[in-house]
Give the backbone structure.
Amino acid sequence: MSVHKKKEVKRVTTHVLQAMKSKGEKIAMLTAYDYSMARILDEAGIDILLVGDSASNVMAGHETTLPITLDQMIYHAASVVRAVKRSLVVVDLPFGTYQSDPMKALNSTIRIMKEAGAHAVKMEGGEEISKSIKKVLTAGVPVMGHLGLTPQSIYKFGTYTVRAKKKDEAEKLISDALHLEKLGCFAIVLEKIPADLTKKVSEALTIPTIGIGGGKHADGQVLVTHDLLGITKDFQPRFLRRYLELFEEIKGAVGQYINDVKSLEFPNDTEQY
């Protein structure tokens, strides 16, 4: 009698991502905030799941990412981790939990790792948050950097437009990227910067870059899942490709259900006990 062995799922690690960059294999990353969606994305074969502070916008309806709390991020992250068998789960440290105090950054990270079971954290910023990154890395937790448009600094920028178009800002971004790599970050998200700058940074670094609105030369790409699926309706940046229009499809299905209930079409004789 033959025994069918269940195929072992190979987990994506920071080491795997580094090997992907070396081989020229692109990295696919999406956001996830709940168990059901994370399970679908993981089974589809996504490399990285980002439990983004974009949950503040997508799940809670806030205008910015600033209001989401550490407790709320841990809740979302724990939900995602329970669903995942393959993907690397990276969790955003929310605004105010790491920027100016390395010990606070470490304590926030420890809570995320212990209470949610995450695999890595992400922090926005360059040289100015060096001490916080160092503190977290010293504790053995992988850190993903984030440069370019950093949404937690929206009130400083005052706009969500493309960053680093001017020479001095571009030079600072390259310098920050090299600095983050030297500190020990395993990857860097480059958000909404010119494509030629993304190319320059990606070629200068040995660690992978993940682009969002940064063009094709990054080592990987990330989108917000709800944007890609067309669940969100009003967000229409140039870099977003919608693969489905679920807002209208779900609305249509619910409309049909309402009609069926009101016209006594649902449930029918075969849908009852």
Remarks:
- The longest strand covers residues 143-148.
- DSSP finds eleven helices and eight strands in the chain.
- The chain has a mean pLDDT of 95.
- The first helix runs from residue 14 to 23.
